[in-house]
Amino acid sequence: MIKSYKDLDVYNLSHKLAMDIFFLSRGFPKEELYSLTSQIVRSSRSISGNIVEGWAKRAYPKKFKNQLIDALGSSAETENWIRFSKDCGYISNEQFEDYSSRLEQIAKMITKLHQNWK
Predict the structure, then answer these.
(1) Considering only Cβ atoms within 10 Å of each terminal Cβ, which end of the chain, N or C, has fewer?
(2) For residue range 68-111, what is the model confidence (pLDDT) as tens digits?
(3) Cβ–Cβ under 8 Å, residues 117 and 65
(4) Which domains are seen in the chain, by residue range?
């Protein structure tokens, strides 16, 4: 039984991903602090943030689903910044593949939750 957003696997996976990205980004060059680093941390945190905000509005299915759509958009944005991180040489191809795969899994889970919610 799901009693809280903390019971949603997609929330837990997206929160873990955001924390992993935060620690990964600490190794980025200082000149990226106000650009790539800021963008990737913000967008990755927005995934779980939108899930939580939507959960608070779950009594209104349309509002909850809109927040899930926003979370999906944030996951796509994060994938974009992960790709930039790889292309700039800040992360390896293996790291890119790992994060990209995790983002794809989260996006599929968000989509399924959106499709199956009431």
Answers:
(1) N
(2) 999 999 999 999 999 999 999 999 999 999 999 999 999 999 99
(3) yes
(4) 8-116 (1.20.1440.60)
